[in-house]
Amino acid sequence: MVRCEGQARDATTVLVLQGGGALGSYQAGVFEALTAAALCPHWVAGISIGAINAALIAGNLPERRVAALREFWDLVTSGFTLAPLVGGDALRGSLTQVAAAWSMANGAPGFFKPLWPPVVPWLGGPIAWYDTAPLRDTLERLVDWDLVNNGPMRLSVGAVNVTTGNFRYFDTANETLGPEHVMASGALPPGFPPVRIGDSWWWDGGLVSNTPLDYVLERERDADLLIFQVDLFPARGRLPQSIVEAEERAADIRFSSRTRFNTDANVTRNRARAAFHRLVDKLPAELRDSDEVRELADIAHENRVAIAQLIYRDKAWEGSSKGYEFSRHTMLDHWAAGQEDVVCTIHDAAWLSRPLRLGTVVYDLSHPDGPAIR
Fold it and tell me: Is 195 left (phi over 0), alpha (psi -120 to 50) or beta?
């Protein structure tokens, strides 16, 4: 990791990828644009679909990363390639619902397929609706696992233990990762079955936390960080006008809440740390050298962190099925939105050239109401 005393763009770059199913192609567009801007990450951390995208990035050579992402997303959206013949949100929304129903009935190629014979809940048997064996085959084909575990980019993916409820990250800094770790991070019940790792069974990490931001902030407190935090669900939204809109809004709040909580909590912690250091400077020498102050100084240690938030903003034609609407046309829209948001974020690159200071600064430069800085 890089200890940086200068600008944000010179710090260790981290890409943090939230879960969100079919919305994950937005993250692929973000990565393509970051690569074009020479802001490729040193560390990528993901949950659920974010873990899959993260593995595709870390498991390929730099010149192959975007191509691997494109191949994956072209594959999983190859089942429904129809595009609307005319414009209008109403017609687009109707086609979106048809595409989502198609995905539910047929799965997504190279990702998941319906179990056969179909699950009959009251008869017991399988504890998921779909089989994710196709995802293992895809990961084995598109990801170089030797590069994941021995290459220059760090990979971290989160999952939750089915029987204990404990949440943890699998991290190439500490252990060897394989397809099963990525699949576990994306095994969202009851759609997908749990994945066995060793003697334990694991589900989607989004059940506990849908963003790896807290893990990154906790694990790296020495190197200065430039974090691109890519969220797929907006915390802000309008008052729902129907049951369908209420379902969508509830999902947005549920999956986005940890993001705002983590950034706010980190800003608050850094204010407390700064206050502690100011207080220590006022203490007499005999107290500054005490064991208690040294212990607190270790806890209050902080680095320089700049967090750039990139948040996918829903389109008017999207609904509560957006997480499992795997159509080609919608995937391309999401991908393009990710690229556009990065261009917006780095268009005025002054913030990338600002000297980093101790503590955390959060930028939302793609906010529809204008740049927001905390």
Answer: beta
Written as six digits, the tokens of 270 are: 């850094």
Tell me which H or E stretch contains 68.
Answer: helix 65-76
CA atoms of 40 and 14, how far apart (whole Å): 9
- Cα–Cα distances in angstroms (integers) from residue 56 to residues 28, 147, 154, in the given order: 10, 11, 12
Amino acid occupying residue 128: A
Contact between residue 53 and residue 218 where contact means Cβ atoms under 8 Å apart: no
- 354 DSSP 8-state letter: S
Verify cis geometry, omega within 30 degrees of 0, for the bond prior to 190. Answer: yes
Q: What is the pTM of this model?
A: 0.88
Kindly report, residue by residue over 34-84, the tens digit of the pLDDT. 999 999 999 999 999 999 999 999 999 999 999 999 999 999 999 998 887
Rounded to 10 deg, the angle between the 25-36 and 328-347 helix axes is 40
Q: Which residues pair with 308 in a beta bridge?
A: 228, 363
Q: Identify whether 117 is preceded by a cis peptide bond (ω within 30 of 0).
A: yes
CB atoms within 10 A of CB 146: 10
For 129-145, b where at least 16 C-beta lie within 10 A, e where not — what string?
Answer: bbbbebbeebbeebbeb
Q: Give me the long-range contacts of 262-267 (CB less than 8 A, separation at least 24).
A: 262/211, 262/213, 262/214, 262/217, 263/213, 263/229, 263/307, 263/309, 263/360, 263/362, 263/374, 264/374, 265/214, 266/217, 266/305, 266/360, 267/359, 267/360, 267/362, 267/374
- Position 151, amino acid: G
